[in-house]
Amino acid sequence: MENATPHNLSPAFEFSSIGGKLAGHSGILELMDDLGRAMTTDPNMRMLGGGNPATVPEMQALVRQRMRQLLEEGESFDRMLANYDPPRGNPRFIRALVTLLRREFAWDVEPDNIAITCGSQSSWFYLLNLLGGQYGNRRRRKILLPLTPEYIGYADQGLEPDLFVSCRPRIEWPSGRENCVFKYHIDFAGVEAVLRKADIGAIAVSRPTNPTGNVLSDDEMSRLSALARDHNIPLLVDNAYGNPFPGIIYVAAQPFWAPHVVLTLSLSKLGLPGTRTGIVIAPKPIAAAVSSLTAVVGLANGNVGQQLVLPWIEDGSILNIGPRILRPFYEARSHQALEWARESFESAGVEWAIHASEGAFFHWLWLPNLRVTTRELYARLKAREVLTVPGEYFFFGLPEDWSHRHECLRLNFSGPGQAVREGLQIIAEEAAKAQR
Predict the structure, then answer these.
(1) 190-to-140, 182, 202, 237, 398 alpha-carbon distances in Å
(2) Same structural domain for residues 234 and 361?
(3) Would you say the C-alpha torsion 393, 395, 400, 406 has a positive or negative sign?
(4) Is the same domain home to 310 and 327?
(5) 171-228, pLDDT tens digit by residue?
(6) What value, to the nearest 5°, has the Cα angle with vertex 368 and ends 365 and 372?
(7) Quick one: 194 and 335 in the same domain?
């Protein structure tokens, strides 16, 4: 009889270096795993973590109406589910988007400037590895993050280690420290010093910034764009929450694109995260490369999101959804959550501050003088059925440690009001125990 491996023993598989890196522990894995488990198995968890959009009733009504139209049309519904689109995306969708951007913003874009992906996370995986890492001439180029903290989802996307270099921000208090609201600004002297010293393949920002809700001003965007152009590198702009859509932005900010800019959009924060639809607007060689990567990795993109919003792209109404439906909804929740935060932290005697809420649906909480890291605080809160995201994950790429990175939490205020209020009260209680 042949020797056999007992059924209760697994073979000792060994992964490649890249496989081990991608399959290992990461902040984004922890965040999404906690989010998924809480939403499916623990109805009592207070969800202040994750980036899931709220269920906005008026938005849901629009989506249901559009889905009924597709069902009634029959042929469009069948084609949506039964056919592959080209790797670049649905040609009609792309043409409609080009027409919209040229008409409304006078952007000099053509269909070859557009590529559709399976969500912004996929877009950024492609872009970061196209522009950062080892080059054939033995150069090793990095991605410059001019403003940290920055989105947790980028941190582990590089196929090569040490992909990022980040710059610490300037911290200002727009209405005085006593108001407990601060704001990060780009330290352009620091950014220019990195550009002189390091070999940079691209500059990358999110606008609004995830995790802080910071919106880079039009002047800051123009200065970053000029620096990128002068160094002959692209400026990557993650617009998952901003203008022109979904428009979850509470301050004046013009949509931004230029021939050397890569702008990524998404349908997720419109309320359609399940469709996994990302949009890349880029110089033609970069858009073509993204399309090639889509073909290799996934053959084609999902059709559902593109078909759902196609008429809104064609008639331009997608530009009104944010200002009319989404912005008022999330801005009201932001103001309410800030009131609850003041109430909770001040009654608990906690030293605290929150970043100015200018867009998206996060509050970035600063708890100075913690005796524990926010990863430890996160674990304590999770044990009390409050999910947050610890700040340590958002400060990758810094050449040195910074105590500030251990004192911040990202909080999602888009959930049910009672859960947000209770969560803030519990955070205040645990912070009071953990501060010096």
Answers:
(1) 21, 20, 16, 19, 12
(2) no
(3) negative
(4) no
(5) 999 999 999 999 999 999 999 999 999 999 999 999 999 999 999 999 999 999 999 9
(6) 95
(7) no
